[in-house]
Design a protein that fits this description.
By secondary structure, the chain is of the alpha/beta class. About 45% of the residues lie in helices and about 10% in strands. Strand 20 (about 785-790) and strand 21 (about 790-795) form a beta hairpin. Helix 22 (about 420-430) packs antiparallel against helix 24 and helix 30 (about 620-640) runs antiparallel to helix 31. The relative contact order is 0.05. Mean pLDDT is about 85; it is low at about 830-870.
Length: about 950
């Protein structure tokens, strides 16, 4: 069953409904009532009590008055001292109408029940004198029926008894001197029961100049009068004094007013009974009675309040803890149709402003609010803080009147109105517009934070998230919509401040007339519109993101074509934002990649297969650029704070640092989301001329950017870190073993793999070296040699596993290698190796060695002629000389070291000397370059002799 809005359950009073409240402004004027000039709701006793809620404090006071006037006790002097608008004058009017009633007590709503509590059968009608400090000037006489009155005591006498009573005090009135206690006692006794209502005494007495007498007396004589009157009332059992004194500095006024207040407080303090009239809970009923008719449908009211209470229970900890208590339902009932949170904010926050009247100000404001909401056909279930129509000039002025200047700009720009940021947000996002969520949040924040911002008092500012939600949430809504709206507003409004991270529930939010640092940041973002600023910051971020990338030898961020080396190292090139990538429109980006592959500045690029590319996404670029400019703007603000160029409070300084950190944290994430396209150039066939660009998306979640790029490269074999010899054999078979010899230099394959995009992209030379080493251990993949001359492979090996990758290394097609191995085996003769004598062994211990066939234990390259071993005497020395071809020098030197020198050194008593002679002849003479290089290297290697002839 649906709930009814407040307007269908209760109606405002006619004066509120039609806007006639502007005439009276809810201003209770006791002098106007005493002279018969007040509005009907104040002048008529019946109407007054119909709209007056008798609070607990007022009840005790009226009982005391009734007892005093009946001679049954009661306080002789009562002082009403509350803050501005606290109900002092209204309370005096209640006493006035009860004491001087012009109708039966039974017609005064609430009074008969009150008298029943006292046990009084009746209440005598009393004389009432009203001494209003604002009604007369102390230096000017006034008259009654032709009689000039000069002083308050003259006015008191005339109101109590006319000319006859005035005669008792005529001399004192004329001289401006205070009458004595006895004279005043006689006056009160003669006209008792009586009540003296003294209002605005401070406003009257503060006007007397120091040490100067006016027609109305002097500062001291008036204080003496107040003291004498209070003493006299104590002596008359049916007379009493009710006086109001201000509590706020606004009412007190100047230093002279402060002096007057302290003197009156001291005077009244001798006898008075202090009384504070209105509590916050009682204000619910005061305002309700004054602004609304009786509830037409109590059952529907109860249903609405129960629905609110249930909604609060369902939201749990998201709302203030007080809403989870059972008594909050009772508060909803008492305040209906106005939400208790409205009263809490007005009485707890707005009442701290010196100029805001607690009761009168609330009444006037809510009358304006209700009038506008009724006129606009508001359908809220209750009137919440988020319902306050701040777009309405009267409702707005009803609040901004009490605030410091500058709030109109805040309201127009950030809070409520057609051009406010809240309205713009709601028009763009229907989920907010459906509930007016942004405006409700902003209104709630304004009502709860503007007073503190205007007073500039230290302490906790603003509302936390729970209070904001309480000011907006209605049955049938979820708190998340308002929570999301709060987050969005905190990020975009210029006058909204916060005390912490939005994710923290205890973060406070408040409006201020000073533009927040976010607006300063937005202005500064324009300074960094130049792409050079943005690119410089972005380059630093990307370098950090790719710093852990070990798969490549170099990362080049926004590097021009000519500055990316063509040296064979594996390199990742990050394209600048000038080359944004879009899958459906990638021509410019791909052409740029192909240009990198073709040229190295003004020179052609030879090693194109060593480049990979990372391109930015066109769709994500605008967000990344904005994030960078935001970080730069916050950084400049923090720098200016440190250097003293920007003066702000500590809270804003902390906010600036927090916002800078947040912005800096966002940039790397945004950069990863933008730089998400890995471009890998390939040629599918050697005959192709235009490179294809393979495109791989780089995920922005999970591992780091470097780790994600490495994963893509290894899983898709864009970069090969470990290569099987079978794949090497396949490529060699496909592209290289087509010559007459069936061979290819390993170095040629390595060089080609760096150049040609149809060859695999090896991580480095070592990957090829390991593939060759592994393949050389088997006879299935290739044979190896270090030169080929006249049909002979120098340093030939097949399946030996012993291979040295240098510029002379040949990889031989398996069939050719096996055929050559068979030829070598066919021409080899039996080889005899002498046994190496064991040191200290006798000649008889030497045995004849047996012939060994190659492949059966003898070194495969050994070519030692058979010789007899003398048993008569052992050989004393060995001399050997070998001719070595330059192409096989490296392999042959290794073989000689392992097979000859190492064997000779097995006897620890052997003295071995190895000399190397190098002879080089040049028919046309050696070049200067060769001579210089060899001479320098000879010095470095410490050759004994190195001469040129």
């Amino acid at each position: 069953m649906s709930l009814k809005p407040w307007r269908e359950v209760v109606s405002p009073h006619p004066d509120v409904l039609h806007g006639t409240f502007l005439q009276s402004e809810f201003a209770a004027d006791i002098t106007a009532v005493a002279t018969g000039q007040a509005p009907q709701e104040y002048q008529d006793a019946r109407a007054f009590f119909e709209r007056t809620f008798i609070t607990e404090g007022m009840r005790h006071l009226l009982i005391s008055v009734a007892q005093r006037l009946s001679g049954q006790g009661g306080d002789p002097v009562i002082q009403l001292q509350t803050s501005f608008g606290g109900g002092k004058t209204h309370t005096m009017l209640a006493v006035y109408h009860m004491a001087s009633r012009t109708c039966s007590l039974s017609e005064l709503q609430g009074i008969p029940a009150l008298l029943d509590q006292t046990g009084l059968m009746n209440l005598p009608q009393a004389r009432v004198a009203v001494l209003d400090g604002t009604a007369h000037a102390p230096g000017q006489a006034w008259s009654h029926d032709g009689q000039s009155i000069h002083t308050l005591w003259g006015e008191l006498a005339w109101q109590l008894g006319g000319p006859e009573a005035y005669a008792l005090l005529a001399a004192a009135d004329a001289s401006g001197t205070s009458p004595g206690k006895d004279v005043l006692k006689s006056l009160l006794e003669k006209h008792a029961p009586c009540v003296v209502l003294m209002d605005e005494m401070v406003a009257y007495i503060r006007q007397f100049p120091e040490s100067q007498t006016l027609s109305g007396g002097s500062f001291d004589s008036n204080l003496s009068f107040v003291q004498a009157l209070t003493e006299a009332s104590k002596l008359v059992p049916t007379a009493m004094i009710l006086a109001s004194l201000p509590e706020s500095e606004v009412e007190v006024g100047s230093q002279r007013g402060q002096t007057a207040l302290r003197a009156l407080e001291k005077t009244f303090g001798r006898i008075q009974a202090l009384w504070k009239p209105v509590g916050v809970e009682e204000a619910f009923e005061i305002v309700r009675r004054r602004l609304f008719e009786n509830v037409r449908d109590p059952h529907e009211r109860d249903r609405v309040c129960r629905a609110f209470a249930d909604a609060y229970t369902a939201e749990g900890a998201k709302l203030p803890s007080i809403t989870q208590e059972a008594r909050y339902y009772d508060r909803l009932l008492q305040a209906y149709p106005i939400h208790p949170e409205v009263f809490d904010r007005l009485y707890e926050d707005w009442s701290t402003l010196d100029s805001f009247q607690r009761t009168r100000g609330v009444l006037k404001l809510m009358a304006q609010v209700i009038f506008r909401l009724w006129k606009d056909d508001n359908k809220d279930f209750m009137i919440l803080p988020g319902s306050i129509p701040l777009y309405d000039s009267n409702s707005r002025n009803g609040l901004t009147t009490y605030l410091s200047p500058g709030w109109d700009a805040v309201l127009d720009r950030d809070i409520d109105g057609e051009r406010a940021e809240t309205s713009i947000l709601e028009s763009k996002e229907s989920r907010f517009g459906t509930y007016n969520a942004a405006r409700r949040v902003a209104r709630t924040l304004f009502l709860g934070s503007a007073p503190a911002a205007s007073s500039h008092k230290q302490g906790i500012r603003g509302l936390n998230r729970a209070r904001v939600l309480l000011g907006c949430l209605q049955p049938g809504h979820t708190s998340s919509i308002y929570s999301d709206a709060l987050n969005r507003l905190a990020d975009r409004l210029h006058y909204l401040n916060s005390s912490g991270d939005h994710a923290q529930e205890n973060t406070s939010y408040w409006f201020d007339v000073r533009a927040n640092l976010r607006r300063e940041m937005e202005d500064r973002k324009k300074r960094f519109a130049d792409k050079a600023d943005v690119n410089k910051k972005l380059a630093a971020v990307l370098k950090t993101l790719t710093s852990g990338l070990s798969l490549v030898d170099g990362v080049h961020v926004f590097t021009s074509n000519g500055d990316v080396p063509d040296d064979g190292e594996l390199r990742l090139v990050l394209l600048s934002p000038e080359y944004l990538f879009l899958k459906d429109d990638a021509a410019k980006t791909l052409d740029t990649v192909r240009e990198f592959l073709r040229t190295n500045g003004i020179k052609p690029r030879y090693k194109a297969n060593r480049l990979l590319f990372l391109a930015p996404d066109r769709g994500a670029w605008s967000r990344l650029a904005d994030c960078i400019r935001t970080a730069l703007a916050w950084g400049s603000i923090v720098d200016d704070i440190k250097e003293g160029r920007l003066n702000i409070d500590r809270l804003q300084e902390a906010q600036a640092k927090r916002e800078l950190q947040t912005a800096e944290d966002v940039v790397p994430r945004a950069a990863r989301e933008c730089y998400r396209w890995l471009l890998c150039p390939v040629l599918l066939r050697p005959t192709d001329t235009t490179p294809e660009i393979e495109i791989y998306p780089v995920s922005s979640s999970g591992a780091s950017m470097g780790a994600e790029i490495e994963r893509i490269c290894t899983e898709n074999e864009l970069v090969i870190t470990a290569w099987s010899p079978i794949h090497l054999r396949g490529k060699l078979q496909e592209l290289y073993w087509k010559n007459d010899t069936g061979t290819v230099l390993a170095q040629t394959f390595w060089d080609d793999s760096q150049k040609f995009l149809y060859l695999p992209r090896l991580r480095n030379r070592k990957v090829l070296e390991m593939a060759i080493k592994t393949g050389s251990e088997s006879t299935d993949f290739f044979g190896t040699a270090y030169g080929y001359k006249e049909g002979v492979f120098e340093g030939f090996a097949l399946g030996s596993g012993s291979v040295q990758f240098d510029s002379t290394l040949l990889l031989i097609e398996p069939a050719v290698a096996k055929a050559h191995a068979e030829q070598l085996k066919a021409v080899n003769k039996p080889v005899y190796y002498p046994t190496i004598p064991v040191p200290g062994a006798t000649p008889s211990g030497v045995k004849e060695s047996h012939p060994l066939e190659p492949g059966e234990g003898a070194p495969p390259t050994a070519n030692i002629p058979p010789q007899s071993v003398s048993t008569a005497s052992a050989a004393k020395s060995f001399h050997g000389c070998a001719e070595i071809t330059p192409s096989a020098a490296k392999t042959r030197l290794i073989e000689l070291a392992e097979e000859i020198i190492a064997v000779l050194g097995q006897d620890p008593n052997a003295e071995i000397r190895v000399s190397l002679e190098i002879h080089a002849d040049y028919a046309n003479g050696a070049s200067d370059q060769i001579k210089r290089a060899v001479t320098e290297n000879a010095k470095t290697l410490k050759l004994k002799m190195a001469e040129w002839e």
